[in-house]
Amino acid sequence: MLNKKSVDDINVKGKKVLVRCDFNVPLKDGKITDENRLVAALPTIKKLIADGGKVILCSHLGKPKGEPKPELSLAPVAQRLTELLGQEVKFAADDNVVGPNAEAAVAAMKDGDVILLQNTRYRVEETKNGEAFSKELASLADVFVNDAFGTAHRAHCSNVGVTEYIDTCAVGYLMQKEIDFLGNAVDNPVRPFVAILGGAKVADKLNVISNLLEKCDTLIIGGGMAYTFLKAKGYEVGQSLLDETKIDYCKDMIAKAESLGKKLLLPVDTVVTSEFPNPIDAEIATEVVDSDKIPADKMGMDIGPKTIALYSQAVKDAKTVVWNGPMGVFENPILAKGTKAVAAALAETDATTIIGGGDSAAAVNQLGYGDKMSHISTGGGASLEFLEGKELPGVAAADDK
Ligand code: ATP
Predict the structure, then answer these.
(1) 192 preceded by cis ω (within 30°)?
(2) What Cα–Cα distance (Å) separates residue 146 from each residue in 63, 84, 165?
(3) How far apart are alpha carbons 55 and 230 in whole angstroms?
(4) 32 lines ligand 1 (CB under 6 A)
(5) Concatenated DSSP letters for 159-186?
(6) 300 CB less than 6 Å from ligand 1?
(7) First to last CA, the chain
(8) Residue 228 pLDDT
(9) Residues in CB range of 279: below 8 A, 6 or more apart
(10) Out of 201, 262, 316, 319, which one is annotated catalytic?
(11) 204: Cβ below 6 Å to ligand 1?
């Protein structure tokens, strides 16, 4: 359990509460295309309203790089939150985030009112954790609540700097839920515990591979990163994604698994193509080969049917499953079969299933399996750093219980 003060441990009646949320949602033509992060933030916001707080929401959106960019305004979020909450969320927009509009809106607030500030990354100091902007944010509020798990791996003004200037700093329900699910899975799993890692590059997941190998019973590798492991086993991988500099690392991980008595599963067969599809969802001819027979002129783009059966069985036998990263180039429907099959295996099992955000979360939601998973993290990078065993600065900055 997370030993941080939560919204259940503080009294916010009549107080101004600055709440850092993760409203970094995808937008297309000014419309929100995936509102999971908004929905996930509602329990904390509702609790603070019910307790009579004056709720001042803030978040970043995209990467405006320290300048006001109208296409990255949080205006659509204020509008959608108004609908989701069934009460007005006043958009107190200043290009410098804490300006006359925000100050006037805060001064006029009654207990239970909600306002939203402009995109915190309009300010160049935000991502540098600068003192001036941290103090300005703090000047608006009596209490701070951090519910932005998606940015918890970063130390920025709106989630870390601000806590230096506000006495009471707690975490919200979403933050608590994310850390409880991921923390229990890793540190106190019901066994067998199976971890599945995919995605493009081994280099992006070095520490996750090593840390999870120590914690899990079976580590499954798929996606582009599998080919560096296959090369480390002495197989030729043709034109597949390969990181020459990490072959020795993969050899070390294979040896580590053996010495710890852990199962490390690698693809036994592979879907290969002659080239990378262009555009990415183009029709493409494929062939299935065993993983030790990848032709020199072909590239591995997905796990094959024998591997699907092997990985699905491992999931079936598990009591806890953590998954991060697709099994192949899932953006192409022809090369998405492995990712889909793993998603289906997770959807069918009674095990606790945790999706570590990013592409795998998107894949699971697109396939309509979202409500079949025990937990889908709202933070890709944050969940990965957590799985690496790192302390997240955004969590560490909150008051201990
Ligand atoms: P996020 O950072 O969003 O959580 P992720 O960890 O889920 O991402 P990435 O490491 O970004 O995953 O990798 C996803 C990318 O890897 C996808 O775009 C996919 O097409 C690509 N990929 C998967 N398998 C292969 C492969 N065999 N060859 C080349 N690219 C691959």
Answers:
(1) yes
(2) 20, 20, 14
(3) 53
(4) no
(5) TTGGGGG-SEEEE-HHHHHHHHHHHHHH
(6) yes
(7) 11
(8) 97
(9) none
(10) 201
(11) yes
pLDDT tens, position by position, 282-317: 999 999 999 999 999 999 999 999 999 999 999 999
Q: How much is the pLDDT for 2?
A: 79
Can you give the pTM of this predicted structure?
0.90
Kindly state the DSSP code that residue 199 receives in the 8-state scheme: S
Q: What residues of the chain score a pLDDT lower than 70?
A: none
- List the structure tokens of 390: 């790192």
How far is residue 361's CA from residue 364's CA, in Å, rounded to a whole number?
Answer: 5
> 222 CA to middle of ligand 1, Å?
10
Distance (Å, whole) CA 113 – CA 110: 6
Residue 296's pLDDT is: 98
For the chain, the C-alpha Rg in angstroms (whole number) is 23
**Which pair of tokens denotes residue 116?**
């939203």
Q: What is the pLDDT of residue 50?
A: 98
| Beta bridge mates, 193 | 320
What residues pair up with 181 in beta bridges, in sequence order? none
* 150 in contact with ligand 1, CB cutoff 6 A: no
Q: Which of 161, 223, 300, 358 is catalytic?
A: 358
Cα(65)–Cα(126) distance, integer angstroms: 9
Tell me, yes or no, if 121 is annotated catalytic. Answer: no
